[in-house]
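Ligand-bound model needed. NAP.
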Amino acid sequence: MLKLGVIGTSAISHHFIEAAHASGEYQLVAVYSRKLETAATFASRYQDIQLFEQLEDFLKSPFDVVYIASPNSLHFVQAKAALSFGKHVILEKPAVTQPQEWLDLRQTAEKNHCFIFEAARNYHEEAFTTIKNFLADKQVLGADFNYAKYSSKMPDLLAGHTPNVFSDRFAGGALMDLGIYPIYAAIRLFGKAQDATYQAQQLNNSIDLNGDGILFYPDFQVHIKAGKNITSNLPCEIYTADGTLTLNTIEHVRSAIFTDHQGNQIQLPIQQAPHTMTEEAATFAHMIQQPDQTLYQNWLDDAGSVHDLLYIMRQSAGIRFEAEK
Ligand SMILES: NC(=O)c1ccc[n+]([C@@H]2O[C@H](COP(=O)([O-])OP(=O)(O)OC[C@H]3O[C@@H](n4cnc5c(N)ncnc54)[C@H](OP(=O)(O)O)[C@@H]3O)[C@@H](O)[C@H]2O)c1
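Prediction:
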């Protein structure tokens, strides 16, 4: 059983703890918050939790792995500190805001004999293994992946405030928040793209509300849509020489149906996990307990590719975070 510490006291941390406990591999033991009262309120639904408001004291306490769900621009510094104290790190997506930060975390993890995982949950869904196997003997001609969902923070934004997810200080925006899922799916299925571009509707601080991108592969393109001020109900599609594979969505996939050029259909055997985060929580625990270095290095490489592409796409749209201005 892995002892779990948590940074970040919003709903997503409860959601991850629920999945972690359901996996039977973790026990929450410590919570860090900027305020002790917030940590206490957060922890009140669990038992025997140590509470901290000093990050260093938290990281010195006896747990094995930390789940970090803070605003994006804080991820790098907090993860680096945790690794330096010998903790394995499960870092919410987007793990970093610059490609070189990911390289730094990789090196720091290796030096401290720890694992670092980016919690990009669709990458670890069993559905994508099924889809990849199905595509193995097919010629891919393109794909259309989207993730656009009207944000619960939109009313706040429209009232003149800047919630963290729309803030340049905290490295927010549609591409970083939701666009990362289509990019992870593309890399999981097709490998690293050679180049990428992105155009977006942007706030005055340059942060994107929604946008369209292209990932360029040698023989085809993957079109990406990300949005936080719009909702897309479109399915996702992968075009092959033999027909089209239609996924109901790009994360927490429930159905994948292949339709050939004659209209015949094959339903892929997709088993949707009961909880959006159980597959990644269980996968990370297994990797810590029974390491598979080849697989782990693949994960790190793929995450590096994602962050390279996110950076290129941000530059092409002119999205600049406060630390870069
Ligand atoms: N995997 C998923 O499905 C999923 C879903 C939602 C979000 N996420 C990711 O989870 C992360 C957190 O997202 P969120 O929407 O929960 O963020 P958030 O509400 O803005 O912040 C999360 C936590 O960070 C701390 N925090 C907030 N503002 C801060 C500030 N100015 N300085 C320092 N700490 C601050 C707060 O904890 P304390 O007050 O306790 O310090 C807060 O509970 C993001 O990286 C996001 O992409 C992932």
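DSSP finds ten helices and 14 strands in the chain.
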